[in-house]
Known about the structure:
By secondary structure, chain A is α/β, with parallel strands linked by helices. Helix content of chain A is 32%, strand content 24%. By secondary structure, chain B is mostly helical.
Amino acid sequence: MPVLEARALTVSIPTEDGIIHAVQNVSFAIEAGEVFGVAGESGSGKSVMMQAILGLLPNAEISGEVLFEGQDLLKLPPRTLRQMRGARIGMIFQDPLSSLHPYYTIGSQITEAIAVHEKVSPAAARSRAIEMLAKVGIANASERFDSFPHQFSGGMRQRVMIAMALILNPALIIADEPTTALDVTVQAQIVDLLGKMRDEFGTTVVMITHDLGLLASIADRIMVMYAGNRMEYGPAAPIFAAPAHPYTAGLLRSSPAHYAAGAEVIAIPGRPPSLLHKPAGCVFAPRCANALASCQTEHPPIRRFSDGVQTLCWLEAGPAAPAVRQIDDTGRGSHETAPVVLDVRDVELSFPTGGLFGRAGKFQVLKDINLSVRRGETLGLVGESGCGKSTLARVIAGLIAPSSGTVLLDGIEMSSLDPAGWRETRKHVQLVFQDPFGSLNPRRRVGAIIGDPFRIHGVAAGAERKRRVQELMELVGLNPEHYNRFPSEFSGGQRQRIGIARALALNPGLIIFDEPVSALDVSIQAQILNLMRDLQQRLGLTYLFISHDLAVVRQVCDRIAVMDKGQIVELAAAEDIYTRPQHAYTRTLLAASVVPPKPQDSSDRQLVETTQWVAA
Amino acid sequence: MGGRMTTAPLPGNAPIVVQRGALALTLRRLLRDQASMAAVLFIVLLVVFAAAAPLVETWAGHSPIEQFRETGLSAMGLPVAPNGEFLLGTDQLGRDVLVRLAYGARVSLLVGVVASLAAALIGITIGVIAGFFGGWIDTVLSRTMDLVMSVPFLLCALALVSVFGPSLALSIGVIVFFSWTTMGRVIRGQVISLRERDFVQASRSLGAGPLSIMLIDILPNLSVPIIVYTTMMIPSSIVFEATLSFLGLGIVPPAPSWGGMLADAAANSIYLVAWWLVIVPGTVLLLTTLSFNILGDGLRDALDPKARPVRPRRKRAKP
Lengths: 616, 319
């Protein structure tokens, strides 16, 4: 008997703009002891679905059946459901910092969870909590029991969360993006831990994530969701080997990890649909490379195949492989003779700490940084959070002054400039920010945002400015007619295009990309990476590309600098970093990155059954 | 908060996108809020009443400062209760309360709006400068705000009036001086968090100067607190003015003002025999401040819908 079974689950959330059809007629069964993966991009309804099942969405209209240990969760009174949460169903959230109470010790938070559901003496609860903390890998568990959450690192906090979820030995644990907020090296440890806990306690784990690579390494069965629909569902191995649904295939192919020299990443065109509108045909049809005529007009049926995979698709066989667009890759890595655009020499940055009463000291952020970038080249800067890579970007952009050392841009030293001269260097260096939501002023129109460089530098005005802004919009793949819209009317990927257009406006010698794709969905990431490459080839741009993701960096960079604790530990050609990593830290990073398997183009699966999809 | 998109299904497959601007959305939310609409209705009526004060005077046939000793006072020299000739009765000097109320509304609204706008302007300027530049500029301006906040306003007002003599301009000046600090603190806090946002960094990296960043990048993002706090400042300015007039420090008699009317009612305990002298201006003053406060609250909810969950409306048919 499955631990959790959902039948025709439909969740609608009323909002001011209309009803959001967050989950539409989704059925699945989770067997005891397995790791069940739910994959999907943001807005696919994966988290909303689990919250609705647990009764955490009071405003939503939910229909269908959700059976957990024989009881329909949707019909249970809130009180019973509350007792079930925690005791029978454990939860792990994305951000371990905000889901732990900062004013209580971790020990008291775990024992509180026990006390809420069971009658035990404080001493017994304490010893149980310490035992569990030790099991999830907290060293000196009995001493750390009385520590506060801020005294733990992100990975350790997530371990505490796991201990808290496991302490009552629940039948099911729901982990919602448990590793997204963590560094790559820590991610792998947490995934391992979840797998180990499943083996040790026999707990069923539901893992909700946007990262297919993560699921490939741990999940037994998976469900892929898109715009509230269950696109593909079944055992993980055959799905990853040869996806039966074009969307799953597209997601796997668009991962920049499948790097092949001379081939462009195959992006899924378009963007996710609005959930306010229920199309007559398939929700994915507008973006699907394999769409048939019936996909536009009729809702696809559920196909069941011989290997247990189910899809919501008109295709009877798997999707056809798209043609790989070859790109001119000959210029890659051959920039030795080009002029140097950026030259960073012995840059150090430190902040004074303590003082007054404490012992005054120095907090070293950047140590002994030396690098140079030549025209037309892309230099990657890789490291985990807190390694100083974003700070270095701001030093290079002139937003932070280094404590010592020099930054030369086109031969001009940045720190020695007066305000007017500094303004002039803006034409040499531009930044594209990580967060496409925060880096655009929400109160200004897109035309004004992209036109800002022209306004600030007095380059073009009036109709001339508008014409140049529209050219830029065209260049980055935006509709120039959207000149008068506000940033909130664009999706994340489009906003990143706006940011790129603004950076291009002054035709700078160097563009710094600070994690340009890490806030974007996988299918959009590939679009932006391809755009960056395209622009570089057409306009001969020079990039400094900052990322925590080695796979992305490999895809776009000629040379890579690996940073750790404010220092560059290794700087070499991209391929050398991959094939012959010299430094121990580089090897750790490489080993920790999980890569989704590259899908095969064909499979020997047979169509077994076709069921009509019934609208709820 | 720019526009939002709403899709509506068409007979075909393509959804049309209905774009609603931020203004239209705010209006929609405000129109749905019944308390706010009642407040707006009262404020509109009050403005019309104040603007039409000369008409009220002509219609009633009584000047606001004329004393009607024959008709407006009883044989014993006491004010007459509301009747056919004096709709809201007369005061202790036989003046028409209705006409005086209308002219008093002019004073209250004028002081309320002018003082609030002036205080908002000062508060925004000081707040943005303190928040944006930080460092010693922030320290000096913030301590100035603390200093102003700790000055006892009545003592200060008494001292000023005894030196310069009471006048409308002086009341407005005193009110502005004592009310800009709230706005200044709110704006400073907002600017400090806005200053660190990526879009300000982006402008800096484009080479924008401090003035350009303050006016073009930061100021438009402050519109919500500015609108809400300015609206909220109007009732406190009105009460402030009424307090000053009540103490004889504001509007010079015989010019009518609500505070002055209440003071007249309190003098010689005349309210014991003439309840309308307290009830009429008191109620209007109460309703005015209440309306502006409700409107301010409603505006905050309408401009910042995230603060409030959307209530489920199950009865609505699915589109």
